[in-house]
Amino acid sequence: MTAPALTASGLSERLPWHSMHHIHDPDSDGTEPPLTFTCGLAHRPGRAYELAVTGLGFWLALSILTKAAEQLVDDGLDPAEGMELDRVLNGRRVRLRRVLGHGVLPGVPTATRVWQVLTPDKWGRFPGDHHYDLPEWPQPLL
């Protein structure tokens, strides 16, 4: 089951984009976490990428993706592997991770760079870090 796309352009006057997609099947056996991603950021000149998060509810995911995209634009940053952003999650850092082979994002051309925004567990560790608390804060890597 795919939730309808929510147009996010009215949520931020500084960041025009086309839409946000949230994919979650509440009837699944629980093995597929929610996936939320932008679709349209890559159409902006000089910013040919999309952002994605996994394992988060829609409203939290929307907030994280919006604020991450805004900080990248406001600070004139190009995403990079391991880059941390500090104005996304109430003072806690988030980390960017390049997604390779992202055929799981419907509507996003495979040539488009996709960056997963990772949020930390309660100890400040990210998915992929040693001792990341996966059972408490599941965020599968794309």
Entry summary:
With 142 residues, the chain is an alpha+beta fold.
Largest sheet: 6 strands, mixed
Task: Report the span from N to C terminus.
Answer: 19 Å
| Silhouette | globular
Q: Which value, in Å, is the CA radius of gyration?
A: 14 Å
Structural class based on helices, strands and sheet pairing = alpha+beta
Give the number of helices: 1
The number of domains is 1
Which residue ranges are poorly predicted, with pLDDT under 50 across at least 5 consecutive positions? 1-11
The total strand number stands at 6
Strand order of the largest sheet: 1-2-3-6-5-4
Instruction: Please state roughly what percent of the residues sit in beta strands, choosing from under 5%, 5-15%, 15-25%, 25-35%, 35-45% or over 45%.
Output: 25-35%
Helix content: 10-25%
Round the mean pLDDT to the nearest integer and report it. 77
Question: Could you spell the SSE succession in H and E letters?
Answer: EEEHEEE
What does this structure look like?
Helix content is 12%, strand content 25%. By secondary structure, it is an alpha+beta fold. It has one domain. A six-stranded mixed beta sheet has the order 1-2-3-6-5-4, covered by helices on one side. A hairpin with a 2-residue loop joins strand 4 and strand 5. The longest helix is centred in the middle third of the chain and has 17 residues. The radius of gyration is 14 Å and the shape is globular.
